[in-house]
Amino acid sequence: MAQLEHFTAPVGTVLARMRALDAELPERDGVAVFNRVYLAVTEEVVRGLAAGEFTDPRAASALDVRFAERYLAAVDAMARGHRPPACWRPVFQFRRHPGVRPLQFALAGVNAHIGHDLALAVVDTCRTLGCEPAALEGEFERVGDLLVALEERIREDLMPGPDLLQIADPLTHLLGSWSLERAREASWAAARALWALRHCADVAEEFAERLDAAVGFAGRMLLTPLPD
Length: 228
Hints:
Layout: H1 2-24, H2 30-50, H3 57-79, H4 89-93, H5 102-129, H6 137-158, H7 169-176, H8 180-196, H9 201-222
């Protein structure tokens, strides 16, 4: 039990940051919408770690913390007046736009975090633990499964009801163009590529920058303002 607490403590630190953001941000703020989603995922990770559900709790804890730190660093950069990564800019730019629905903010945040942050977090974790990406694949899949289940709940909770389907047609079309499963697969491929390029700093940096820009472009499309 003491060993499991050792692994849950670091995740508890980032969890506390997310809870603080949840208390600070206005409910309708686009960043707050995503933060609530991510908070639920992180709470589930902590529960799973405490229950011994992860095959390698050390790797799961390290990956989850490095993953969360990417998102929190983007929040901190914006708060200090600095430019966050390109993948997060659409969420911050449109966070108060009245024509963007909560579901769009939730999925645009998931897009940024899975499409960009997760790949870099895998590389960060490999460096921290001194392992290859293959050693993290099981925990990567476990975290991904949590996100898939959560995405289904997000769509159920935030999607307009049947009486609004006619009005929501543009939203349905827009969200149908993005897939968490495809984003997750692409993130794993990107992580492996970045790891393979780790000794070619210039090429790795360019690859990461292009990944960031591409994910940001997809996020901007997800946040297209829609009519009421």
